[in-house]
Every structure is written in C-alpha cells, then in structure tokens.
Design goal:
heterodimer, A: alpha+beta, BirA Bifunctional Protein, domain 2, 7-stranded mixed sheet, 13 helices, 9 strands, rod-shaped, B: alpha+beta, Phenylalanyl-tRNA Synthetase, Chain B, domain 1, OB fold (Dihydrolipoamide Acetyltransferase, E2P), Phenylalanyl-tRNA Synthetase, Chain B, domain 3
Chain lengths: 339, 806
C-alpha cells in the first residue's frame, strides 16, 4: 500500500511539473484527486488494509493528498501568473503618444484678472456690485462734482443718447448709486464696462472696463486709502512691489492721487517694459470729496471715505504682457486659449 | 505747460537742484513733470576759443587749418567752415569732448557725438569748432548765430571759459502736466510758486512798474463793456511812438525755449506775458480803431468776421466780440482781426488784458472750430486779479525794451471785483482726515510760499484769488498733504470688524453659468456693446422685428458703433467668423454681457440692461450638442418643472427646421438653433454654426439653489423597453410627454435610445425606442405592478396613432 501511494505521488508530481496548459492541469487534478481519481481509489481500498494499519495509512493518504493539492495550487498560481504576464506583454503601449484631452473652455483674460482683483478685495471685506452702463448724466457727472459745462466733461469724450442719458464714462457712477442707498458703512468694488469716444488703436478702445472702489465710514483717513491700495498692489503684482502716490486732481475726490507701482519686471531700475521710468502708472484715487458726500445726503463731518478706479484692460495688458489692446476684442481662440 | 529751469529760477533764486531732483520733487508735490529736455545733454569739454591763425589746407580746397587759443593752450583744428576770421571767438570742443549733433541739423544721436583728435586729409586736428546745431540748440534760441557755419560768439566772450555755461545751456526745458483745477499753473510764475513751496525757497514776484508815462489814456480811448456777464474785467493801456524791432536775446531765448517763435518786440511782449502770467494779451493798432472806442459785446447771428489769419468766420449771438465804434475788431479771447493787427509801421497801440467767461469762450471756440493759445487759457476761467499785473508787466517791458512810450493811466472796467476767500484752518481736523500727526506749526509753514495768509486770531486762511481750486477744508488738507509729502503719510488699513465681502447675486449667477459652459469647451469672448444698424440686415430681421428697436447713440464714432446691441448674436457671429476666416478648425465661444432693451424710443428713462448669454460653435457637434449645453445650464440653475422646446416661433436668422424656443414652465428663457445658411454667409462663415441665447437675468430670477439630499435607492429599478412606430411629424417630445403623463409615480426615468427612419419600416414612418425605468422606494417592483402601467401607456399612445413596432 505504501509503495502504491508513493508511486502515485511520484507519478503525480512528475506530471504536474511537466504539465503545459491549465486544462491539462485540471485534468490531472481530476485524475489524481477527483472522485474517481487515483488517490480516491486508494482510500476506497482501505478496507483491504489491516485495521491496525488503517490510521497510519489513512494519515499517509491525507498527507499525500495535501501535498498534491498544494502542488496543484502552486502550479496553478504559477501558470496563471505566466498567463497574465504574457497577456500584459502583448498590451504594451507607447506612453509617449499624446494624451487624450477634453476641450475645456477658457475664460477671457480680462475676467481672469477681474477675478484676482475681486478675490483680493473680497478678502478685505468688500462687496462686489454693479450699476447701469447706460446712465443718467446726473450719476456720471453732476453728482460727481462735474457740473454742466465743466471742462472735465469734454475731456472724457462722452457718448450721449440724449441730453440726459449717456454711456457712462466711468464706473464712479456706481459710487453715487451705492451711497444713495443710504446704508453705511460702505465697502464695495464695482467692475464694469465704460465708454469713451476714443478711436481704436493699440492702447485705446471706445469700450473698456474699470473697477471702482469705495469705502465710506466714520474715521476713514487718507492713510487708510494709502494702506489699502498698497496692500492691493502687493497682493496683485507681488509682495516686493512698492507704490508711489502722486498728487493729482479728480473733481470727485480731494485730496486726489495717482498711484504708480515699481516696475515688477525690473524691480524699479528702469527697463523697456516701464519705458525706463522704473514706475508704472496704475490707478487714480482720493478721499471722497465732501461735496459729493453732501449731495447724496451724507454728512462729511461725520463720515469720510475714499474711492479709487483702475482700468481692467490696463491691468490685463500689464500682467500678461499683451502689447495690443485690440487682441482683447478679436476673440481669436489662439489668443484666448493662452489664458 | 513748458518752462525752462532758468526761467523758473528767475523767480526762485534760491533754487539749486539737478534736473532730475527738480523733476522728482515737483511730481511728488503735484506738478507732474512729463519730461524734460536738458540743453547740455551730450555737451562735454566745450570752451570758448579764439582763432589766432587761419591757413589753407595743402591737400583740400574746402578745408582750412586754424590755430585756436583755448585759454590753457593753442590747439590746431582743421575745419570745413568758412564764416570765421582771425580774432573770432567760437565754441570749441576739445579732444575727448562731446557735441550733441551734426551741423546739418539732422536728428541728434541719443548718445551725442564724441570728438577725438585725428587727421583730416593728413593734417592733425585736436578738436572742433561748433555750429549752433552741433551744440544741440537752434537759431531761434540763439538769434545771433550764423545761418550756416560756426557760431561766432560776441567779442567780449571770455577765452578759455566753459562755453556751455557762457551760453546758458546748463539748463533744461520741462514739460508739466497741469491738472484742470490749477489754472494758475498754466504760467511760469505759477510753476515757480509751486517750485518755491516744494523746495521751501523764497518766491520773488515780479511786481512790475512803469517809470515814465506821458499823457492820459482817457484822452485817446473810450471802452464800454456791454455784456459784463461774459467779460468780468477789461483793462486797456496804450503805447505810442512804437518802435518795432527784434526783441533782445534773453527774451527771444525764453520764448524759443517755450516753443514760441520770436517775431518782434511788441508781439513778443504779449506772448511773453502770456507765458509768464498765464494772462493772454492782445495788442490792437490804435489807428485802426474807428471812433476811438472799444465796445465788448455779443455778435449778431449771421455776422461774419475776418480773423488775422485771413479766414472769414461765421458768428452768432453767443460769441463775444471786441468792436470799435463801427465794427468788430476781434473775437474776444480767441483771435484778433485782420484790420487792427500789429504791423511794422504801427504808431500807437492799445494793450488789452481782459478776462472772459471760460465756458462761453470754450463753447464759442468749439463752434468756430478755432482754438488758439489765448482761448486755451481763457476757457479755463482766469483770475481777473491777474489781468492788472500782466498789463503792467507788458508796459514795463515796452519801456525796458525801448519799444515805445507808455501812455499814462488805464481803463479798467471791473464792476465786481473778486474777493479773496476765507477758509477756516484746523490742524487737528486735517490730521484726523489724513491720518497724520503733523504739528500745527509745520502745517502753517506750507502756506506763505503759496500766497495763503493765516490769521492767528480768527484761525482763518485767506486764499489768493489765483487759487480758484481752494474752496474748503478738504482742499487745505490736500495742500498740507502735498507739501508734507504723500510718501510721508502712513499706510494703514481701515478696521475690518463689520466688513463681510462677497459677490452680489448677479455675479454669482454669471459665475455659475460660466463654469458650465467652460466645462463644455466654450471660451469666453468679449465684444463691444455698440454695433452697426446693418447687423439687422445681416441677421435677416424683418422691419418689425423687436430686435431692431435699439437705442441710438447721438454722437457715435461712426455708423459701425452707433446703436446699442439688443442681442449678443452679432458679436458672437463676428468672433466666430474671425476664427473661421483665420482657419481655426473648430471654435466654441460664449459671451456673457448686457443687451439694452428700451421701454420706449426715444429713450426717456434708462433701458432694461439684460445680462445675456450667447453661445456658438462650428466644427464639431450639432443641434443636440448645443441643446445638451442648454439643458446643463438650466439644470445648473436648479430649474425644475416643465421644460419645453418649441418650434412655434421662428427666428429669421436660424434654420427654419432646426431651432427651438426654450420654455421653462411656459416662460421663454432663450432659444437655440442652427444658424440660417444665408446669415452664416453674411458673416463669411462657410460651415454650419450652432448658437444659443439665454436670458441670464431671467434665469437668475428663476434659479433655485436650495438642494436637498434624496436617498440613494436600495431596491433595483426595473427597465422596460418600448419600441414605437409613428408618422415622421410626431415629435419625440410629444411621445415623451404621453409616456410621462401615464407612467405614474413609479416611473423614475425615461430615456430615448434609438431613432430610426429607413428601409426596415414603411415610407413616411419613423421609429423611436425608449427605455422606461420603474422603481419603488421600499420594494422591488413586480411584473404585476408594472404591466398595467405599460398597458396604459401603450393604449394612450395608440390613441395618437403611435403603435408598438412589431
């Protein structure tokens, strides 16, 4: 009996090792371990074994079965691995071929810049609001301390619909609309389209965008204006940028200033980008003129405020180093996709 | 406004600054320097030399060899010039020095021209004798310079001295940007006053006086101002025994440095005073004044007048004229007349220094199409107090230049003299406003150079009349801030306690819409808000189309920019066309912007500005690609309820069989479709274009963002497919609505998965195949539950002749 078992074992192990397909392996398993397999036959012939030897022989059969099962499993695993490896080998691809991309849309560069500006001011507690683009003369001029026949009215080359209604030349009109609401304090920016009768060229457009800012509260100072715009410039252009406030004149602010930033390209040494100046003019600002406050019914002795206006196209051209404003309105995808 | 530094220094003798220092400091105190032109740029090592000997060049007929005494030595210089003789003194640049340009007056090189010793036709030359052009200046600035050749200096020029210094070329011309509120700074005196205050130096006013006068003007002339509203002040003085001659060099040079061509002493004086005081002057030929009377009055409609440039001008009743007893002799503040102009043989003249209403002057000048140096100043509204010293200055110069005898007295019509304003001064309030801590004494120091006086007792400031911009405390705060220095004011941030920032609702909606369309591959375009009325024809709109009711700009840049858009389509199609014609294979663009819908025309109140989305693409996709995007947007807005696509109302610019109006709960929110081939052709697009327009303002009003969680189903859905046959005119929408209506609550989802028209079914029919998903929340649906529903659906479909496909 022992010899028979040993023989079966040897034969099985030999066959397993030389098997060449999964099917053959399965056949072998059936042939040796199946219900009618050789090992089962051995068990069936146990009745011929002397009763005292049965446990020993039984143990031997079980050991052999276990060994063969392990051998089958391990062979199966090896064969499976080989199969997978073979399959994978056939599936090799050229990973340097281009990726398949979905077409994503691109936002207009001006609006990307606008988002940056909005984020900065929202972070400082400003609300982003808007006002009408077709506006009453009153909001665009009169209420901003630019009465009828004021030379500044001519300077702005206004498009008129009629004597009272015009295309706003500045987002400053939104200052008045916000202040008129009578809810104080105010901390807002108002981005939007403005219009001036400038012929189209590389640096001019009859339609462009401004971002207006307005803060009205008790105790607002010129120092607050400086600090706010200095912070904005650093957040927008980079922390190493310096600002320069120059006295200027706007009818609706007093004192007024223009703000230059140190050239973010050369750091202020002077280069072609800043035309050798080291500084780039960026925006206009000032303390809200007391008369403007009075006209909307705010007591300038109680409340003060500051306002500023910046050209969105100018920021966009500067930041992306675009040299011709007309590109912004052509909408060539080869341009738009760059942003 | 231009002024040379030397001219400014004439009133601020203590000023000792470099050009760059002057530029920076003036800019920071509010008188912005745009640019400056240094006269001595590239002038190096140039001395006054005296020619001791002139000998012919052995090898060149056109050259001569000069021995030139340059003080320290005598150098040999070969020159091609011929206008000199032995003993002449000339600016001489020595070896290693520099001149500004060539003698032919061609554009000057940026870095100048370096002069080195060398040989000219074999003869050593150790420098160069200079022409006026080589010194980088002009004959207008130096009228005694030769027309051609070397600049021969006066006999008393000191040999060996710095020629640049001697000629006053260590100077620069500054170009200032004057803000519209600072009328007083359109004058050299005004700039000088600012310079004095900026650098803390003393300001020396001119204080003109005439020493010798003869006769009395009243014996010669009478003046009447008939329209005092337009002429607050009119001063006349007279000069007799005029001797017309060129002005002295210093005066010519100052005018020339300000870009004014010197003409003769009388004309130059009026120009000089205009530059110095900012007060335009006029000189009339007294003998041409009929009736010896000047009347200032409005013209009559239809009058004409010949100005001194020879042009005949059409007048109207709002144009103020200077007249004599019979006729006009000048347009007030704009231009004098041909007949009374100063000629070389003039004997007696009348000087006018007046002020005219700025607005009237500006409007008159506009109507006449005639803007002169004088009107450019008057239109700003001049200080009447300035007219008096200005006319005195003119008479003083007449006397100084020996140009004539000043007649005694003046006629000064000034019914309502301007009073200096008083403004309270409160140093603490100024500090509070600026956020500074500037001591009162320091604040007060800024005022005297500006001509502002402070009365300690009343704590009031008296503002000089020329500072028309100073009206209240905030203006005074600006003066303090300017001279304290904006840079010295601290930078602080307003306290943040109550502020909570964020986007207002409209911006939130816009961003949501953008997010979706960007994900679908549309890029953002931006076009003008105004367009040409021709776009209506390009879009094939009928004459009655609502979109034609556009707001018209009364003064557009041209027809192409003359009406406010009532749709974004033209801009979108134009942008798509740009891409198409630049051979971009595909393009998908959107624009989010306002359209302008007037309530009535002509406009009496502001129009409805409707935020609108326009989408368009060509290249890849079809109607349903666009419809998918529209669906996604409407879903993104959280719009629930009935959504329909109706082909009832046709847009002329869209394919009549491929367009739909989008209705949300029966309300039109936009439309989409394939662009009509004729419209596409009108825009130069030779392929299919699909567009959609949505009323974002309305979507914003309808939008709902209150999202609530729905439980993820635990029980499986049961699907039933339904393959149907019907005539081709039956829309999928109708079939869907019948199924939805009859499927009851257990229907979860309905999906069209196949549309077939072709050989396998009869002519004129089509087949639609749907999958209907049924699901119950709490159990798996059984056949018994679903079958009756399916039967009901099929029978209802049958009523509409929609049959099961066999």
């Amino acid at each position: 009996m022992r010899e028979k078992l040993e023989k079966i074992r040897e034969e099985a192990l030999g066959k397993i090792r030389s098997v060449d397909s999964m099917d053959a392996l399965n056949d072998l398993r059936v042939a040796f371990l199946g219900k009618k397999g050789q090992l089962t036959d051995v068990l069936k012939s146990m009745k011929d074994v002397a009763p005292e030897d049965r446990p020993k022989i039984g143990q031997m059969v079980n050991d052999t079965r276990k060994e063969l099962e392990e051998c089958f499993d391990s062979m199966k695993k090896t064969m499976e691995e080989a199969l997978i490896n073979e399959k994978l080998k056939k599936e090799v691809i050229d990973v340097t071929l281009p990726g398949t991309r979905r077409v994503l849309g691109h936002e207009h560069p001006c609006n990307l810049i606008l988002k940056e500006v909005e984020d900065i001011f929202i972070g400082m507690g400003y609300e982003v609001v808007s006002g009408p683009e077709i506006e009453y003369d009153h909001y665009n001029f009169e209420a901003l301390n630019i009465p009828a026949n004021h030379p500044a009215k001519d300077e702005q080359d206004t498009f008129y619909i009629n004597s009272e209604i015009l295309l706003r030349t500045q987002t400053s009109s939104v200052q008045i609309r916000e202040m008129e609401k009578g809810v104080l304090p105010i901390r807002m920016i108002a981005p939007g389209r403005v219009f001036r009768a400038d012929e189209v060229d590389a640096t001019h457009s009859p339609s462009f965008h401004q971002i207006e800012g307005l803060v009205v509260d008790k105790g607002i100072t010129f120092a607050d204006l400086k600090g706010t715009l200095d912070e904005f410039c650093k957040l927008f252009f980079g922390k190493d940028v310096r600002t320069k406030f120059r006295p200027h004149h706007f009818p609706f602010t007093e004192p007024s200033a223009e703000v230059d930033v140190s050239c973010f390209k050369c750091g202020g040494k002077g280069c072609r980008f800043c035309k050798g100046e080291g500084w780039i003019e960026i925006l206009g600002c000032g303390m809200v003129h007391p008369h403007v406050l009075e006209m909307v019914g705010i007591d300038p002795n109680e409340y003060t405020g500051f306002a500023f206006g910046v050209g969105l196209e100018r920021l966009t051209l500067l930041k992306y180093e675009i040299d011709d404003m007309r590109l912004l309105y052509e909408n060539d995808l080869r341009f738009l996709k760059q942003f | 406004m231009n002024a040379s530094l030397s001219w400014i220094k004439a009133y601020v003798p203590g000023l000792d600054v470099t050009n760059q220092e002057f530029r920076d400091a003036m800019t920071l105190s509010g008188t912005k320097v745009e640019n400056y032109d240094a006269f001595d740029k590239n002038l190096e090592n140039i001395v006054i030399g005296q020619i001791k000997e002139i000998a012919p060049h052995p090898d060149a007929d056109k050259l001569v060899i000069c021995q030139v005494d340059v003080g320290s030595e005598t150098v040999q210089i070969v020159t091609g010039a011929h206008n000199m003789k032995v003993g002449d003194k000339v600016p001489t640049v020595l070896d290693g020095g520099k001149v500004a340009g060539g003698h032919d007056g061609s554009p000057m090189p940026e870095e100048g021209i370096k002069i080195k010793k060398g040989k000219l036709r074999g003869i050593d030359s150790y420098g160069m004798m200079c022409s006026i052009e080589e010194l980088g200046t002009t004959k207008e600035m130096y009228p005694d310079a030769a027309e051609d050749g070397l600049y021969i200096l006066p006999e008393d020029a000191p040999v060996g001295e710095d020629a640049v210094e001697y000629l006053g070329l260590h100077d620069a011309n500054f170009e200032f940007e004057i803000t519209s509120n600072r009328v007083d700074c359109y004058s050299v005196l005004g700039i000088a006053r600012e310079a004095a205050a900026t650098f803390g130096k003393e300001f020396h006013d001119v204080d003109p006086k005439v020493t010798k006068e003869s006769g009395d003007i009243r014996d010669y002339l009478e003046v009447e101002v008939a329209d005092p509203d337009l002429c607050p002040r009119y001063i006349a003085r007279m000069v007799k025994n005029i001797h017309i001659a060129p002005s002295p060099k210093w005066l010519q040079r100052r005018l020339a440095s300000n870009g004014i061509r010197p003409i003769n002493n009388v004309v130059d004086i009026t120009n000089y005073v205009m530059e110095e005081y900012g007060q335009p002057m006029h000189a009339f030929n007294y003998d041409a004044i009929a009736g010896k009377k000047i009347v200032v009055k409005r013209a009559n409609d239809g009058d004409t007048f010949q100005t001194l440039d020879g042009q005949v001008r059409n007048l109207d009743k709002d144009i103020l004229m200077i007249c004599d007893a019979e006729k006009p002799i000048g347009i007030a503040g704009i231009m004098g007349g041909e007949d009374s102009k100063i000629t070389d043989d003039v004997q007696t003249l009348v000087f006018e220094a007046a002020t005219f209403d700025g607005t009237n002057n500006r409007l008159s000048s506009k109507r006449l199409g005639l803007r002169t140096d004088a009107s450019g100043k008057f239109e700003k509204g001049l200080d009447p107090e300035n007219a008096l010293p200005a006319i005195e200055r003119a008479c003083q110069l007449i006397e100084e230049l020996g140009a004539g005898e000043v007649v005694g007295g003046m006629i000064d019509i000034y019914p309502n003299p301007v009073q200096p304003k008083q403004i309270p001064f409160n140093a603490d309030q100024i500090n509070e406003f600026l956020g500074t801590d500037i001591p009162k004494e320091k604040q007060l120091e800024y005022f005297p150079p500006l001509g502002i006086e402070y009365d300690e007792k009343t704590e009031m400031l008296t503002i000089p009349t020329f500072r028309q911009d100073l009206l209240r405390e905030a203006d005074i705060a600006e003066e303090v801030a300017r001279f304290y220095g904006y840079a010295n004011i601290p930078s602080t941030l307003p306290s943040n306690a109550e502020a909570h920032g964020g986007l207002s609702y409209g911006f939130v909606i816009n961003n949501k819409v953008k997010e979706i369309v960007k994900a679908y591959g549309f890029s953002e375009s931006m076009t003008y808000s105004f367009e040409s009325p021709k776009v209506f024809d390009k879009l094939q709109l009928s004459e009655e189309d609502e979109l034609r009711k556009a707001i018209v700009i009364s003064n557009p840049l041209g027809e192409d920019f003359s009406i406010m858009r009532t749709s974004l389509l033209n801009g979108l199609l134009t942008s798509l066309s740009t891409n198409y014609n630049r051979r971009n294979k595909t393009a998908a663009l959107f624009e989010l912007g306002n359209i302008y819908i007037p309530e009535e025309l002509p406009l009496t109140k502001l129009p409805d500005e409707r935020m609108t989305l326009a989408l368009g693409f060509y290249g890849e996709g079809d109607f349903f690609t666009m419809k998918g995007v529209v669906e996604e947007i409407l879903d993104g807005m959280g719009l629930k309820g009935l959504r329909e696509y109706s082909a009832d109302e046709l847009k002329p610019f869209l394919h009549p069989g491929r367009q739909a109006t989008v209705l949300q709960n029966k309300k039109p929110v936009g439309y989409l479709g394939e662009v009509h081939p004729v419209t596409a052709k009108n825009y130069g697009i030779g392929t299919k274009v699909y567009i959609a327009c949505l009323d974002v303002k309305l979507l914003g009003e309808l939008a709902r963002f209150d999202k609530k969680f729905t439980e993820i189903p635990k029980f499986p859905a049961v699907n039933r497919d339904l393959s149907l046959v019907m005539t081709k005119d039956v829309s999928a929408g109708l079939v869907e609505s019948i199924i939805s209506k009859n499927a009851g609550r257990i229907m979860e989802h309905l999906e069209l998965f196949d549309v077939y028209e072709g050989d396998r079914i009869a002519e004129g029919l089509k087949s639609l195949a749907f999958t209907i998903s049924f699901r119950a929340k709490d159990h798996t649906l059984s056949d018994d539950e679903i079958s009756p529903v399916m039967e009901k659906i099929v029978s209802k479909l049958k009523e509409k002749d929609i049959d099961l496909r066999s």
